[in-house]
Amino acid sequence: MSTVNAQLPAPSRPWEKTPREVLPTVVILFLSLLTVAAIVELTALKGKLPYFLLFLPIGTAAQFLWARYKYGMKAAKDVVASSIMMTGAVAVFIPVVSIVGTTFVKGLPGLSLSIFTNDMSQASFMDPQGSGGLIHALVGTLFLILISVAISVPMGVLTALYLTEIRGPGSRFIEFMVQAMSGVPSVIAGLFIFSAVILTTPLDTSGFVAALALSILMIPTVTRASQEVLLLIPNDLREAGLAMGATQWRTVAMIVVPAAKSGLITASILGVARIAGETAPLLFTVGGADKLNTNPVFGVQSALPFYIWSGFRIGTDEAVQRSWSAILVLLIIVLILFTIARVVGSRSKGAK
Amino acid sequence: MTTNNESSTSNGQERDPKMNADQGVKTNSLSAVANARGEKKVGSNPMGSGLEARGVHAWFGKHHALSNVTLDFFSGTVTALIGPSGCGKSTFIRTLNRMHEFIPTAAFAGEVLLDGKDVYEKGTDVTKIRLQIGMVFQKPNPFPSMTIGENVLSGLHLSQIKMGKAEKEELLESCLVRAGLWNEVKDRLSAHGGSLSGGQQQRLCIARSLAVNPKVLLMDEPCSALDPGSTLRIEETISQLSSTMTIVIVTHNMQQAARVSDYTGFFLSDGGPGELIETGPTAQIFSRPRDQRTENYVSGRFG
Predict the structure, then answer these.
(1) pLDDT per position as a tens digit, B76-105
(2) A245 → closest Cβ in B137, B141, B212
(3) What is B206-249 written as a DSSP string?
(4) Which of A11, A140, A161, B188 is the most exposed place for a label (fewest CB within 10 A)?
(5) The model scores a pTM over 0.95
(6) Nearest by CB: B159 against A236, A244, A259
(7) How many angstroms away from the CA of B140 is the closest CA of chain A?
(8) Other Cβ atoms closer than 10 A to A21
(9) What residues of A are in contact with residue B105 (Cβ under 8 Å)?
(10) For position A330, which CATH number holds?
(11) What number is the ipTM of this complex?
């Protein structure tokens, strides 16, 4: 046998389970499911929840027994642990799918081009679908998000930079205040702006004033998330910058922030997610217009959450249908914004 | 041990076999290596002043980490600082370019003279000091958001030095050539620094510090995270750079100290603050140290 003519071994993946090894698990889980079904059908338990609640212990126990019989106690314990974690993941995933699914199912029927071109100035919530629309609320929400981002992202990121990079006087106190702020109920933020801005200054209810209220909620979220990201940047990089004769400001601006960029974008997204669906602060601040108003500083505006809330409050079939459609639109908008932020963040990081 | 055993570790260094043969009393492998490079250069180099530490003490909070270190670094030479972990070597070189003060609890006493001027003097522009005293860290740390080219030139932007485009390109090439990296990266200057191997990253960091034209280069265990091949490349880079600048290198590797340095300082802490036990030409430290503790350390009896 000469090594020159030796065949190259075929690449294989010996660490992966063969179908033969996987089959018993599948059979066991299927049998557990049948058992659960039998229990649910033959006893007084009804609905989907018992399936979930019973399948967890029965499936886990069956797998445990099989693994113990086949591979021993150590492997059996491992199976139980992964089974529990799997259940946790599913338990989180089910509500998400359920929410998104319900929104699509209930929202789609009311979705048409006309709701993106009309406002509610000529129609009422009780009118049949096709008259009126939510463009005023959609534009209002976009303005709210835009203004809130313009206020909160710089403030939040700068605060985080102060807390992690400069660590100047009052850092502890500021950190404490930020934490306290993140616990403020959203309705309080609305009331605060109502009493501090609307009652005492010439500014009346408007998109800008509502964005101020939302910023109160958004700033702590952005600050805390940014802070976590900045703390992950290795100190080595800061020292390398400083050791090259840079001032602290140049080091932060040229090294720390670019290195943390994608994390800072995530922090901003978290902030947007925090406020996009907020309703309570808007009740006192946005004015609740039913006419399209593209001036966020002057005159009342509306917002999708406000529109959704109005529809459900009226409660007729037509009004509720409008609300569901608005929820779907809001969901899609938030999704689009997140995607844009992600793409922008990753592109400039990879290409430049 | 015979001197021949060393030939593999002293690659790339000029050596004079006669000199090794002449070594009498305490010939060990390290002293042989040190002698092989040492005498010639030191002899031909006048005692030009560059950087001087005078009675340097350092504290972290109440912990006295470094006590009364006085040490001169001569321009055009390489000084190695050796000693066991925790003896204050790194702390010491961080006092030289004022990086020590970034540790919140740090305190300092003494003088560090750069061309006769104390860098700790009130009103000194510390960023100018750090421009003149560059630093290479233990772990390669290229800036992750920058390309290879941007990394090298980052010092210019960081310290706001204006320069024309042609000049920049020239500087970029010369720095990478001096750091011994040019041939490996010239075709991918716009790739990210993180795409290089560890040894290449460290040479990139050296090129980066060279770009602002420092008089002194401090290296804090620059090879401790690298494989022997990369270590050798860095050592070659060090000996090429040493003709034009003052280099201070902290190392745990005594072979390395013997290979690259003209002078060696031995630090030790016996429970208390770290102290400079002995300093002198590298050949002397490794062959006939004056202090018993130095001899114990360089001969591998402890540490």
Answers:
(1) 899 999 999 889 999 999 999 999 998 889
(2) B212
(3) HHHHHTT--SEEEEESTTTTS-HHHHHHHHHHHHHHTTTSEEEE
(4) A11
(5) no
(6) A244
(7) 9
(8) 10
(9) none
(10) 1.10.3720.10
(11) 0.79
